Amino acid sequence: MYFPLPSFPPSPTSHSRRGDVTFGEMDVNRMSFPNRTFDTVCDTFGLCSFEDPQQALREMERVCIDEGEILLLEHGRSHYEWLNAILDKNSHRHTARWGCVWNRDIGKMVQEAGLEVTSMTRWHFGTTYMIHAKPGKRVGDLRRREEGEGGERKGWWTWLCGGGQTATKQ
Fold first, then answer.
1. Would the pLDDT of 90 be above 90?
2. Residues 6+ positions from 169 with CB-CB distance below 8 Å
3. Hey, which CATH number is domain 29-135, 3.40.50.150, 2.30.30.760, 3.40.50.2300, 3.40.710.10?
């Protein structure tokens, strides 16, 4: 198991009842794990603080196996406009003080990242989201096409424009 926890420095390896657990630090936008490494990827209250949450979601999808699950417990915009007006009005002050952009549209971000939402529940006037998702077909298909014969990576722009196209692994 690997838990990227940037502010948890106890020891490089700790022992748990399930075996060794490794704690480490890495950039969520450029994780060093190979494609399709984990069966479950979890994020709790991180999308509000990530500099590029869309890229973070794409990375979560990249490291999740095709049959895997992406679990998100997040907070963001409400389904009540009166509450969104309050969040929007105070967003700059809240972000400056806490580093949290509390008025992000989490549902829209997940959809735009191409994840396939299998369930979503919302609480606290719609500001808390529990999302169960899996790698989406659109982005997942593109991810598979990025790898040519022999596993070399092809950039998505090269694939899209047809330059240097290689056979697709199935």
1. yes
2. 144, 147, 148, 149
3. 3.40.50.150
